Amino acid sequence: xxxxxxxxxxxxxxxxxxxxxxxxxxxxxxxxxxxxxxxxxxxxxxxxxxxxxxxxxxxxxxxxxxxxxxxxxxxxxxxxxxxxxxxxxxxxxxxxxxxxxxxxxxxxxxxxxxxxxxxxxxxxxxxxxxxxxxxxxxxxxxxxxxxxxxxxxxxxxxxxxxxxxxxxxxxxxxxxxxxxxxxxxxxxxx
Length: 190
Known about the structure:
This protein is α+β, with helices and mostly antiparallel strands. It is built from seven helices and five strands.
């Protein structure tokens, strides 16, 4: 009876598919791999001002607002209600990497810098750059400098056989010495 049932095409294909799936112990694992391979592209979102540890260290109490702006750039948030506080916020969201968020608050007393908050957690420029492109494989870096011996050896090599030089084109006729007479831009009215 089972054999006669399997000979019907409508029953055969689903039964064979179920048997194959049931026999595959790693089907759940394969489903996870397929679903992660088919995730949609997510746009990289960068918002705010990146502030490095070096920039925070360049700040000194007593600096004017203009000096602070020259070091850090324009603040992302400056409130009318808190005129003596500037906030620098930086957020980076990338696919496959946990979001990064940094916050630096700069406080003024009058026009002079009084203190900062949040600068301890800022990465150095080198640390930040190393986190940007962690997907690219690091290849062998080529040697970019030549020693004196290598430079001398390169200068003494015989040049390749040069192609026969073509004669130079004739020089353009000399410009007239006097004022040049140009035609009028518009046709005369009749």
